[in-house]
User: Which sequence fits this backbone?
């Protein structure tokens, strides 16, 4: 299976062995269970000022997750925007692979204010307004450490993607690089050149080569938008060492070409360019308005371009010439949440 877990591939034809739970599954006493004799613990994660706590984890798993998520781990007493109850499921799996090379698949649907999501080894729900959620881990996730990590991470991807929309932001399938005190976000589908741009810019602080959080800057900051790392990395991005938020200089839709040039896009075209690179939140109509509002707000404050580039670092000459002499461009650094 090819795992592109930052983009949910929605397929509507059900496999006969699949089980996609509705909300009644989580409310049923015979559904997910946790043996009370097993010691349990919690882990709290903060990304861009959004805090999620996972309760009901077996104690040995907590330390493993702390090592995995590093600087994103918060103290247990920090108030959480979402509290998730983790339980064992009563099933070996939920979704089934329909072909050997299918992309990592996440099925989502809404029941009133509750989002339900599931994949191969997990199923879960979340209500962002109530600040509560649940995650059921299938037997396949509990018997394989890699499947366990994958299940936790992909639930968190879905959760943070929806939580940040409620804050006026979004997760962007992009490479995020910090130069001259600003974040430069390069986005586009897989194969467009995000990792290439990252490797061609060794002097930059790498926020991500795959997925970056975008949100209004803390405290207003002139109404601008900022970018920060997430713990969900691509193949080549180093482990994040900072949770700071950096003001965004621009969004760049990557287009491989034989020469380097910038083409600015505005209005609905700019919104459309960005929406095409948002994972998890564009498949369902229930929050379409909120998604468009979040993206449109960012394009008003931050320019969007199509960057035609020839896969060498000369594209930076085009970008630097565009920003040369821009007032207020320099920034002393990022802002901690």
Assistant:
């Amino acid at each position: 299976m090819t795992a592109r877990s930052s983009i949910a591939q929605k397929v509507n034809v059900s496999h006969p062995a699949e089980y996609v739970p509705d909300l009644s599954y989580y409310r049923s006493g015979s559904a997910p269970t946790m043996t009370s004799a097993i010691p349990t613990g919690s882990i709290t994660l903060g990304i861009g000022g959004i805090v999620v706590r996972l309760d009901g984890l077996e104690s040995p798993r907590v330390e493993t997750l702390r090592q995995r998520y590093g600087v994103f781990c918060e103290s247990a007493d920090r108030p959480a925007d979402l509290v998730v109850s983790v339980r064992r499921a009563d099933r070996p799996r939920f979704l089934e692979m329909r072909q050997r090379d299918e992309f990592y698949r996440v099925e989502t649907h809404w029941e009133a204010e509750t989002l339900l999501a599931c994949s191969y080894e997990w199923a879960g729900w979340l209500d962002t307004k109530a600040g509560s959620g649940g995650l059921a881990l299938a037997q396949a996730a509990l018997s394989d450490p890699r499947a366990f990590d994958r299940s936790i991470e992909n639930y968190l991807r879905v959760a943070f993607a929806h939580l940040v929309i409620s804050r006026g932001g979004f997760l962007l399938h992009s490479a995020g690089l910090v130069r001259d005190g600003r974040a430069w976000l390069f986005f586009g589908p897989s194969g467009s050149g995000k990792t290439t741009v990252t490797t061609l810019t060794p002097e930059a602080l790498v926020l991500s080569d795959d997925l970056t959080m975008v949100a209004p800057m803390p405290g207003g900051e002139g109404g601008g938008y900022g970018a920060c790392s997430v713990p969900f990395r691509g193949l080549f991005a180093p482990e994040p060492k900072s949770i700071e938020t950096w003001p965004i200089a621009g969004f760049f839709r990557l287009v491989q070409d034989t020469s380097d040039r910038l083409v600015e896009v505005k209005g609905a075209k700019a919104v459309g360019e960005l929406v095409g690179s948002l994972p998890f939140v564009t498949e369902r109509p229930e929050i379409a308005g909120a998604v468009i509002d979040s993206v449109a707000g960012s394009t008003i404050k931050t320019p969007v371009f199509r960057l035609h580039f020839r896969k060498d670092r000369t594209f930076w000459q085009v970008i630097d010439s565009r920003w040369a002499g821009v007032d207020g461009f320099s920034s002393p650094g990022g802002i901690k949440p």
In short: Residues 145-165 form the longest helix (21 residues).
